[in-house]
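ARCHIVE RECORD
Type: protein–small molecule complex
Small molecule: adenosine-5'-triphosphate
Source of inputs: curated submission
Record status: active
Notes field left blank by submitter.
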Amino acid sequence: MKIESIRLKNFKAFKDTLMSDIPRLCVIVGANGVGKSTFFEVFGFLKDALADNVSKALNKRGGFREVKSRDSDGAIEIEIQFREAASKPLVTYFLAIEENKKGTPIIKRETLTLKYGSGCNSQPWYFLDFARGNGFAVTNELEHVEHKTALQREAQTLARPDILAIKGLAQFQKFPVMMKLGSLIEQWHISDFHSNRARQVQEEGYAEHLSSEGENLSLVTRFLYERHPTIFNEILERLKQRVPGINSAAAKITEEGRVLLKFQEGNFKDPFLARYVSDGTLKMFAYLVLLYDPSPHPLLCVEEPENQLYIKLLWELAEEFRICANRGGQVFISTHSPDFLNALELDEVFWLIKKQGYTTIKRARDDKQIAAFMAEGDQMGYLWKQGFFEGVALQ
Ligand SMILES: Nc1ncnc2c1ncn2[C@@H]1O[C@H](COP(=O)(O)OP(=O)(O)OP(=O)(O)O)[C@@H](O)[C@H]1O
Ligand SMILES: [Mg+2]
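STRUCTURE (tokenized, with ligand):
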């Protein structure tokens, strides 16, 4: 599963923007307030809208007027294109939200189309098309449909005009593509790790996934240690390889049921307990726990992973993110760090700038000068520092 493009209209600072041909590892650079977190928030918004409805998702963010780009006309629009695999049709999910005359948010239009082939003759198949609570959905199993004239459509009315049709129609349970879209949105995860949160002692128990800020790290550690020992050992091996100075890493369980991590650093005879290791080591361990999750998130957004990690570790971390993305998921990362940028490939980097209050997306590989320097073996962090990323303030 891979998101190919994201188009946003009137979503906060994104008045009219398109990010296309998105790679599996996608790193977004930009100054404070340029919209990096807002870009990730689109997925959180969809998740809330799917769990409840569009009104609740908007209210959580201050309401329709707060989310809609300031001084803009028209609906809030989100369009996501994805493919289950390179050989599968291109799926486009489109959502437009407006306010009715009473000031209540409603879904102006929601469509899901599938496009087979890539030529201009390949017209999209409308699988679902709703407006203000009414519309149609295809009811036949797609594997048995040879041509779009054979599609059977059924008119439907949703319980409310602010409910997503992809949520409201139970029949979609039998369509794999819908299930994939649903799980992409539901299992989306944002990581904004803080070492001080991870050091907090947790109540006993298990947690299967690392939380956004990492405060349940000890619980996930125990879960992996007891239920997925092979993965757990792989994480410790990786940690040894990635963090210089760590000679060995081991774990043991205490009487109270906590997993103690012991890291042997340098020449010290006595191992350190995880509680006392450096922020950098702890952070690297936490990212490995996140990236080697036994049921991985199909879509991972990571906020500013560079904090507390020194330069060598940023290279190692970039490599781990890349490995994770290439295992079949997709990883979006926001960063301010030229050192992290130095560890990235030309195709992986986008940057955001603001023009007249609204955000524009640029891509490193589309900039001839940056592409030429990179072809000669340069690194993007240095190019950024030298001012080659147009419109990005130097930090
Ligand atoms: N409705 C809106 N219309 C236009 N701009 C908006 C709207 N709501 C928020 N913004 C702008 O979006 C920006 C917030 O962006 P965001 O928090 O995504 O930035 P960021 O790149 O993550 O910054 P940082 O590096 O500090 O984390 C602010 O500048 C804010 O003014
Ligand atoms: Mg941010």
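CURATOR ANNOTATION: The chain is about 30% helix and 30% strand.
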